[in-house]
Inverse folding.
């Protein structure tokens, strides 16, 4: 189909169908979009043009950035040990489990086994954040803890992919230096800029954020990395500004969830080849089970140790077991660099997408905890005034 407008109508029509189905069955629209994309990709075919890939990629970048803006520094400080521990173990347990399984039981060479371990070590920021926003849990303490743990988990994935496979050259050094400078300057410059331009119809704030994300994303690509990688860090750097002005992230979420993220999730689903999946269904299920089992063995005991409510512990473990953005990026990295063949890529991507759907579906359907907004911090002076008996 060469008509760009009809192609656009097809993709947005599928996104609309996914939204309606999501409302009717009370399941996250991100998961429904993945399923709709898989069915459409294997029946009517979905055209992955350059502009579709751009919109899908920008959707992943913006969604990852918005997830970073939800990291509340006060909540992270209050739950630093739990977020760090859950995130670190959430990466290490499946990475080592899948790596050893692929190397010694499947007989894959070390490079392929390492890509398998990295691909299935992730927690999907895109899926988790989409679920959090849809359910309102991004405004709760448990939601903030999960998002912070997601960051730590995926930071481990990014570092592993970078350390094992990065090209150590001047481009990588320049990318690292520019990212460090941007992260140092943004918390100071952005609040001043946002205040100076104000809320305008022309959306200068949104354009500024997009400029930073696309600029750093372009440098990441030149360095042989992925454009989505700096987005989370930029989001964390701008988190105080976004938390102070809830209207700004609300406007950016409208842009993301209306026109960008549907392309990302539909594209992710369309990459699943039902024929190849049927041929390797057993291995895909086994890899998915290995990932979920190692996540549970690593994370669930930690939720008990940090005194999460049982329902919150299971919900956290299930959401930390998801995978999509960095998992597919890692698998695609292996394919494009000749580390994986097409069959191995299909197996890993399908297992990754399965990990986006299965644990999230179970978490939402049976283990969603009670909604508890973040407790407001009461200044010491105000607390003392409240504690004083009322005068007669």
């Amino acid at each position: 189909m060469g008509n760009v407008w009809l192609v656009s109508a097809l993709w947005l029509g599928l996104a609309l169908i996914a939204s309606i189905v999501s409302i009717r069955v009370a399941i996250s629209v991100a998961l429904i979009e993945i399923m709709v994309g898989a069915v459409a990709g294997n029946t009517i075919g979905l055209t992955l043009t350059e502009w579709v890939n751009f919109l899908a990629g920008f959707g992943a970048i913006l969604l990852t950035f918005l997830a970073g803006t939800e990291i509340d520094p006060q909540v992270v400080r209050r739950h630093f040990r739990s977020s760090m521990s859950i995130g670190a173990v959430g990466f290490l347990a499946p990475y080592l489990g899948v790596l050893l399984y692929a190397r010694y039981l499947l007989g894959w060479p070390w490079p392929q086994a390492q890509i398998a371990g990295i691909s299935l070590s992730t927690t999907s920021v895109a899926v988790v954040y989409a679920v959090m926003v849809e359910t309102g849990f991004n405004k709760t303490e448990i939601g903030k803890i999960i998002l912070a743990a997601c960051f730590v988990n995926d930071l481990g994935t990014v570092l592993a992919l970078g350390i094992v496979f990065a090209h150590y050259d001047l481009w990588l050094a320049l990318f690292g230096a520019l990212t460090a400078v941007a992260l140092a300057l943004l918390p100071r410059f952005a609040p001043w800029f946002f205040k100076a331009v104000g809320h305008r119809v022309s959306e200068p704030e949104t354009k500024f954020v997009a400029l930073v994300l696309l600029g750093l994303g372009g440098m990441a690509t030149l360095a042989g990395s992925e454009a989505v990688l700096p987005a989370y860090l930029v989001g964390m750097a701008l988190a105080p500004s976004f938390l102070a002005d809830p209207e700004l992230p609300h406007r950016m979420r409208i842009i993301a969830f209306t026109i960008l993220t549907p392309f990302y999730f539909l594209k992710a689903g369309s990459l699943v080849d039902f024929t190849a999946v049927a041929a390797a269904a057993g291995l895909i299920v086994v890899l998915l089970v290995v990932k979920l089992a190692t996540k549970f063995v690593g994370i669930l005991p930690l939720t008990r140790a940090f005194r999460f409510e049982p329902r919150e512990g299971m919900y956290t473990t299930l959401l930390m077991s998801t995978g999509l953005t960095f998992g597919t990026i890692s698998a695609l990295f292996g394919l494009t660099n000749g580390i994986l063949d097409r069959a191995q890529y299909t197996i890993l991507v399908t297992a990754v997408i399965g990990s986006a759907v299965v644990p999230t579906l179970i978490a939402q359907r049976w283990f969603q905890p009670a909604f508890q907004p973040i407790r407001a911090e009461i200044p010491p002076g105000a607390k003392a005034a409240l504690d004083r008996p009322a005068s007669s």
User: Anything to note?
Assistant: The longest helix spans residues 170-197. The radius of gyration is 21 Å. DSSP finds 19 helices and no strands in the chain. The chain has a mean pLDDT of 87.
